[in-house]
Amino acid sequence: MADLSKYRSEIGSWLEANCPSDLLGLSMTAIEGPWGGKKWVPDYDSQRAWLERCADKGLTAPTWPTEYGGGGLDKAEAKVLSQEMRRLRVPPPLIGFGLTMIGPTLLQFGTEEQKREHLPRITRGEIRWCQGYSEPGAGSDLAALQTRAVDDGDAFVISGTKVWTSYADKADWIFALVRTDPDAKKQEGITFILIDMDDPGVSVSPILLISGSSPFCETHFEDVRVPKSNVIAQINGGWTVAKALLGHERSMIAETFGTGAGQRRQTMADRAKGYVGADAEGRLADPALRERLAQLELDTRAFSLTVQRSTDAAKAGHNPGPESSIFKMYGTELNQRRQELLVSMLGPNALGWEGPGFEEAELSVTRDWLRSRGNTIEGGTSEVQRNIVAKRVLGLPD
Amino acid sequence: MQLVLSEDQELIAKTAADFAAEHSPVSRFRELRDAGDPIGYSPKLWKEMADLGWVGIPFPEEYGGADLGLSELAVVLEALGRSLAPEPFLSTVLLGGQALLLGGSDAQKKDWLPGIAAGEKIVTVAYQEATSRFDLHAVETRAEAADGGYRLSGEKIQVLDAPSADAFLVSARISGEARDAAGIGLFLVPKDAAGITVVPQTRVDHRAAGLLRLDGVVVPADAVVGEPGEAGALLERVVDRATAGLCAEMLGGMCQAFDLTLTHLKEREQFGSLIGSFQALKHRAVDVFTELELARSTVMAAVRALDADAPDASSLVSVAKARCSDAYVLATNEGVQMFGGVGMTDEYDIGFYMKRARAAELTFGDAAFHRDRFARLAGY
Ligand SMILES: Cc1cc2nc3c(=O)[nH]c(=O)nc-3n(C[C@H](O)[C@H](O)[C@H](O)COP(=O)(O)OP(=O)(O)OC[C@H]3O[C@@H](n4cnc5c(N)ncnc54)[C@H](O)[C@@H]3O)c2cc1C
Question: In this predicted complex, what is the ipTM?
Answer without folding.
Answer: 0.95
